[in-house]
Automatic annotation (TrEMBL):
Family note: Belongs to the peptidase C40 family.
Domain NlpC/P60: residue ranges: 1-70
Alphabetical GO biological process terms: proteolysis
Transmembrane regions: none
Signal peptide location: none
Taxonomic lineage from the root: Bacteria, Bacillati, Bacillota, Bacilli, Bacillales
Gene Ontology MF terms in the entry: cysteine-type peptidase activity
Taxonomic superkingdom: Bacteria
Keyword vocabulary terms for this entry: Hydrolase, Protease, Thiol protease
UniProt-recorded name of the protein: NlpC/P60 domain-containing protein
Amino acid sequence: MSRKAIVQRSELVTGDLVFFETYKPVPSHSGIYIRNGQFISATSSRGIAIASVNDPFYWGPRFLGARRVLLDPPEQKVLSLFIATRNEP
């Protein structure tokens, strides 16, 4: 991995890390942005879940920010293949 960049909510791309404030005033939940306003994360109540970053009732107001970890080309290829296979019907 090379470096990390701060990302605005409107500029999220597949693979960005998203952070939320759930039970304390610091990042207490994180996920990986998938696409189309959605992210995937592990929850204690539902296991792996896909949710909207912009959900007006829960995640939207708790969104703290995002970071982009810029991967070296081989790592980026693996991530892209993983996400492509997870989104197949």
